[in-house]
Amino acid sequence: MRPRTLDEVIGQRHLLGPGTPLRRLVESEAPMSLFLWGPPGTGKTTLAYVVSNVTKRRFVEVSAVSAGVKDVRAAIDTAKRELGMTGRQTVLFVDEVHRFNKAQQDALLPAVENRWVTFIGATTENPFFSVISPLLSRSLLLTLESLSDDDVRVVLNRAVSDERGLGGRATVAPEALEHLVRLAGGDARRSLTYLEAAALLSDDITVEVVEKAVDKAAVRYDRQGDQHYDVISAFIKSMRGSDADAALHYLARMIEAGEDPRFIARRIVIFASEDVGMADPTCLQTAVAAAQAVQLIGLPEGQINLAHAVIHCALAPKSNAVVKAIGAAIGDVRRGLIGQVPGHLRDAHYPGAAKLGHGDGYKYPHDFDHGLVRQDYAPEQVRDKRYYEPTKHGGEGVLAERWARIRDFLRGS
Fold first, then answer.
1. CA torsion sign, 222 to 227 to 233 to 234?
2. pLDDT tens digits for 159-206?
3. How confident is the model at residue 217 (pLDDT cuts 50, 70, 90)?
4. What fold does the segment set 6-143 form as a domain?
5. Domain 226-315 class in CATH
6. Which fold is adopted by the domain 149-214?
């Protein structure tokens, strides 16, 4: 099912349009060096094959897992001879190029610099960290994206009907197709592997056949429907109820169903302030760190970071005082309780501010014992309002006592 032309390639529309580097490479006879960076199954090897096929260039593949400097130099020497004797160019494709050490990458430099080959390196890791600067600076870096569910669906439907695939010899139930899409996780190669495994068992591919073929139960989950909202609701409520086991169950269901891990991470970050708040201020730090980790490394490893944050959130003492406080303050502002900023708190740094009386009478708290001084901070209309009402839960209990003493002092009680 490997595409033979750029028009057959599914996904990566940002790389395949008119005037893009890949189009120019295919339409031009000049050699070019590229790095293709993206997750597994997004078409890195496919694009290299297509470039070679369409331009009638020799295709030589070197795996960075098993090849050494000797293999690289041998491939380059052969390409030079072919170019000198017949004028035919060579596409030198290095898969998992990030696994090459510095010496191996250095061996590629002469071929890239002298245009003896069209070099295409594929990597799943950030090339700015794994590829030497001289090689990277002489090449174009193209970033591939995970395929969307619609893209994977097209790949599967094409494989079912195309003679290069099943050629219509098997039928796939709609529910089974959606299960295959979810299992693929944006990886076209994985989707085809699972489809082939199911087709070996039966020409009538159902959800049950797919489950048996890949040994993975179907998770009934629709990212746009009721299951999406029901599961995320149960997930939040389980953390709020401090049931870490239940929360982990719903986390697992979402991950296995192919839910966007960034969506899950965002909900955990919200929960950390909305339901834990100042009862455990470190909970937000954990949630944000997990969200950043998921963004950096993705799945499957990111599931560990999400689980870490879920357990912290579930077992932390709970307080909704923060969300109630900002809600009450916003409510008063929307009702028009705004008032003028007290004169002594206004900005006094610009020329002419002193003439307006801005900053007059301001008392600098650091000049007073304990860093506290009695003066008006809020506008008159809300001077007696109480927004933050801390609970006695967890670390907020200590804050509650401190805030009570501070508020009494500031208000002159």
1. negative
2. 999 999 999 999 999 989 988 988 887 888 889 999 999 999 999 999
3. low
4. Rossmann fold (3.40.50)
5. mainly alpha
6. Helicase, Ruva Protein; domain 3 (1.10.8)
